[in-house]
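#structure-requests
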Amino acid sequence: MSEPVFDKRDQLDKIASGLLQGEQIIAVYDAIGVGTGFLGLTNLRLVLQDNSFVGKRTALTSVPYSRVGAVSFVSDRNMLGRFASSSQIAVTVGTHTYEVSFRGDDKAKHAHDVILWHLVH
C-alpha cells in the first residue's frame, strides 16, 4: 500500500499509535470548524477526533465502515450538482451524523470516495 496522505504529522501519529494488526492508514485530513479535529481513514475504519466534549475534552471515535449508513457531500444550495466542489462531507452512523469540513475540495472528495468504496464493496 502507498504512503498515507496527511495534513499534520501529529494527527497521523495519533492514528498510527492505535492501529490494529494489519490495519493501514489511507489518509488523515485536518478538519476545520467546530467539533471535529480531524478525520482518519484506514483500510478498516474511519477515525474522528471529536472536540465537542465539555471541559475541553476530546475523543477519538472509531467507526468500522460496516456501521456507516451513508456518506454525503454537503454544499449550499447554489453548489448542488457540482459534487467535486464541496469541501464538507456528512457521515451517518446509526442516528448520528458527523459533519466534517476540510480545507480544499479535493480532500472532501477523496474522503467521500474512500468511505463510499468501503460501503459498496
